[in-house]
Here is the input.
Amino acid sequence: MGESDCDQRKPAAEKRIAALEEKYGTTLDLLDEEGLPADADYEMHEDYIMWHHWAEVAEKTKTQPTDQGPKRAGDTQPNA
Here is the structure.
């Protein structure tokens, strides 16, 4: 994933996460700890799956630039 791709996906992921937090009045971490409510409908199950997806996208885009490793030719050469 290129840097500009990360730049575009991170705000989109954060926006979707915020919308789900507002919709359900909770956080994904809390839902993971407590589980879905017994009366959770199909839509909430689907949202829960997508919530995890967007949380993963947000996490990957947050760490992506530092996880790409060295980019300069000299950085990849073994020490002499």
